[in-house]
Amino acid sequence: MIDDKDIINVDQPELSATERLYLPQIVGGMKTTLRHMFKKKITLQYPEKKRELRVENYRGVHRLNRDEKGRVACVACFMCQTACPAHCIHIVGAESPWEDREKYPIQFDIDELRCIYCGMCEEACPVDAVELTPEYDLVGRSREEMILDKEELLKVFDRTKDMKPRKNPKITGYAGTGSPDEHTSTTHGGAH
Amino acid sequence: MDWVIEQLSNQLVFSVVLALAVFGAIMTAVAYCIYFERKISAWMQDRVGPNRVGPLGLLQPLADGAKFLLKEDIIPAFVDKPLFIIAPAIALILGLMGFAILPWGGMVDLNGDGVVDVMCQVADPGVGLLYLLGIGGLAVYAVVVGGWANNNKYAFLAAMRSTAQMLSYEIPMAMVILIVVMTTGQLGLNDIVTSQTGAGNLWHVCHHPVAFFIMLVTLFAETNRTPFDLAEAEQELVGGYHTEYSALKFGLFFLGEYAHMITGSGFVIVLFLGGWHLPWVPFLQPEATSIWAMLSKMAVMGLKISAFLFLFMWVRWTLPRFRFDQLMRLSWKGFLPMCLALFAYVAVLLYLGKQTSLLWTLGGNVVLIVVALVVAGMGRVPITGRQANLSSLPWEGAARMR
Fold first, then answer.
1. Which residues in chain B are closer than 8 Å to A19, comparing Cβ atoms?
2. Which domains does chain A have, with CATH numbers?
3. Cis peptide before B227 (omega within 30 of 0)
């Protein structure tokens, strides 16, 4: 017997009379399972019903936000592409046809299979154009299909803008052309 | 119609027709057993269970069957090929053979002339219950042959365990059956059912509840169901004796297990719960011999078997598995002495002519339970036992028990 005061010897608990006889315990267990048989089931019938979004910042499929005029909000600054640790974002920028900014993306691809859904792109974006959505069930039949281009990403925005409004619709003050005030006055689902 | 009834009045023709009908019904029942096993397990775990194939998932057995048929049937290079092929067949055939002597509907008067024409039972051999014991003894071969042919250490361990288990539990089972045989003086199963009917006669479970309980537990052990499913303990033995089986051969083991369950429940019902009989219902008495009486008797038998199957599944999804030493102890130190005591007591009652007296039989049962409780309480050893409580030598026991 080791006589060390740091050692705590734990005895097995003494069994009560019914525990020793085993049968009453069996009956108790069977009562429990029978009760559970008639309980409400917790299964969610997945493809038909989906779970409600329980966290605001769930990191699912990306989207490219539209601004209040329905144009792509991205200004092709390459911040997200630079920040991305998985190198899954590919942007081709071009001169913007619009007054309020210099550049816009003519191509914006995200490889959803390479992506690790860390949310760094969302953090890096100065105009809150790229965001992660609560959508978690993206599937495809080929690797190519899983590379979402600009149009696809804008479609994701259209699908999810009601579920998760755009965080910060303010995109001006960047190109220095428009006044910030005239844009902040426009409401965008009130995510401020 | 007359011609059909005339042909059916021949016991041989009737038996063949009944055998085919029962075979079809049993195979369907077995398939749906698997469905209900999954459903009930799901319900008990607050889940929904299979619900995608057909309405409520009711076509799931068909999908399962198709899957078993279409999967690649692998025969590994290292197995004992003839035995490997024959083992699943043994499992299913033995599971089904028991149905031959189950009494489904008593005596039947097909053409309504007041004379009994046939017996609603595929076969009624004079040795009745001995046939059942023989089948039960053979059932162990499916597991042993399967485990051996696998040539795989896990399968072999399972086969070893299973052999010891089935042999150990066959003894209390045979004893319990003997108690019923002594009480009734009959071996034929229909005679045993009849002996539980009529004025002044009760179902045997009223006379011998302890024997009924022991029979029930041994049935769980004989069919390798939880809490006695050591032969296929997935967690320790990778599936046990059917580790190397695939496709339809695995399916046959599966079907065999459920067929065995149905047969076993049928026998417990015949021995202790009055078979097709229900008290106070006029068309469920042996005197009722019309076709409709036969059909309702079959329905009652089916309902009783379904209730038993539910019990099997209920227990399976409630109780954890026994340890092997607990299993052996329960049989040899628990059930065997109790069975012997009961057996001797019934023999004495038989000598005194009191074997149908409720007072005497129940009194004996009560005394037996009290004695068992006292022994269990005095020993201060839990029925299930903990490893620390097990004594290696008899005289060490008291010292190690605290």
1. 382
2. 62-174 (3.30.70.3270)
3. yes
